[in-house]
Amino acid sequence: MLQSRLGRAGALGRLALRIGGRYLAGSPRLIFASVERRTELRHDLALRTADDVAEELGSMKGVLMKLGQMASYIDDDMPLTFRAAMARLQHRAPPMSEGLASSVIREELGGDPETIFARWDPVPFAAASIGQVHRAITRQGRAVAVKVQYPGIARSITSDLRNVGLLRRIAAAAFPGLDTRSLVEELGERLQAEVDYTLEAGNQELFAKYFAGHPFIHIPEVVRELSTARVLTSQLVAGSRFEELQGWDQRERDMAAETIYRFVFRSLYRLHAFNGDPHPGNYLFHGRGRVSFLDFGLTKRFTDEDLAPLIDGVRFMVIDGDGDSFRKAMERAGFLQPGAPVPTQAVVDRFGHFYGTVMRDAPMTITPAYASAIVKRFFDARNPLAPYSDVPRTYAILQRINLGLYAVLGSLNATANWRRLAEEIWPFVNGPASTPIGEAEAKWYEGREKYHAPLDRTA
């Protein structure tokens, strides 16, 4: 794996030259080709370039691979062939060698994997931006997934973050028109925390404890005695991947989308924690709305004080329709400079767009175009409010809702009465169950509140 700044910069430079050179070489043919032939040529160029990008980013891991994963599902304007090839980075990226993975197990757990586990599959079944995952059977006969961190990944991330200019150019190619500075900075900060699997294990246990017994949301249990800072062992879960779900009928897709939506916002408003990496490779689907959620490295925990202005903002915008109070909530949160020389209606128009799914009490389909518009509006530097608005550090990870959740729902063309679902979860409404999934969740929640002690949400 490339670790030095110069080595990784060189790889990025070669990637850019190959992409640019290929399009430059193809441009004369495009100019003189017929309309039909032009489309065919562009398709061929996009497919081959996408394969190159997936190979390069996959081998470099770290920040670059994370950008590739995000590019595969966020931006609706990218060629479908490019997005399809980049989707391989969600869970099928180039793995490290068998010997290298074994060396990490020896260093962290004190023996070869074949000794530590009753059975060990040396071939990983998933490979992501920080580590790869192997199947194993424990000495107690339990089937587990063992995530093994890439050696030197922390140094690689540091090298990536020093290549700010190149990273921003790669991000700009993936997300044209967006403020890539904020995106790259957030990714860097989150990834530096993600390399400590001890923190991730604690995050996963927090979610698992809260959602224990939930009829539709499942969090794999952590096996602590086989987990360290660079090895994370969890219950092995079998299920269908996101691309398989996309081939299921629309009712199944809608139920899965509803569960994902409930998981994200119940985590935020009730658990006061947010899993900030909602990309499709982190879900497994079991049909009829049941979903397993994986990977809790990018988790942010919030205090009551952190969430207070956000909760007020939702209430003032959606329930009360009070633009002045909504503006004050945005100022209090730090999204808008106090006293900015812009009319309140402009503030409502700018930020209100992100509440579009819950403004009306009616079913709404979230399309890929709608999801892409949310992302672009969030990063639109040409908006009159742009000089006076910011994303405070406390809420930086919440960008991932806009960059991830709605992209996932949009790719499913998910339909629901999102307002009713949200009212079930909003603490200032506590609305009645509006769907069969909601009815089952309400029974679960009543039981967990009765028999479970309150969780320590800020530990």
Report on this model:
By secondary structure, this protein is of the alpha+beta class. Among the domains are: 5-93 and 169-176, no CATH class; 240-459, no CATH class. It contains 19 helices and 12 strands. Helix 2 runs antiparallel to helix 3 (62-71).
The class by helix and strand makeup works out as: alpha+beta
* Contiguous runs where pLDDT drops below 50 for at least 5 residues: 22-33, 45-50
User: Count the helices. How many?
Assistant: 19
Based on Cα principal axes, name the global outline: globular
Report the portion of residues in β strands.
5-15%
Helix content class: 40-55%
- Kindly report the average pLDDT value: 79
Tell me the span between the first and last alpha carbons. 35 Å
Over all CA atoms, what is the radius of gyration?
23 Å
Tell how many strands the DSSP assignment holds: 12
What's the quaternary structure here?
A: single chain
Q: How can the largest sheet be summarized?
A: 5 strands, antiparallel
Which features does this protein show?
alpha+beta, 19 helices, 459 residues, globular, three-stranded mixed sheet
Helix/strand layout:
Elements: H1 5-32, H2 35-60, H3 62-71, H4 80-86, H5 98-109, H6 113-116, E1 119-120, E2 126-127, E3 131-137, E4 143-149, H7 153-162, H8 164-174, H9 180-194, H10 197-210, E5 217-218, E6 231-235, H11 242-245, H12 250-271, E7 273-275, E8 283-287, E9 290-293, E10 299-301, H13 304-320, H14 323-333, H15 344-352, E11 364-365, H16 368-378, H17 399-411, E12 415-416, H18 418-425, H19 436-451
Parallel strand pairs: 5-9
Antiparallel strand pairs: 1-3, 2-3, 3-4, 4-6, 7-10, 8-9, 11-12
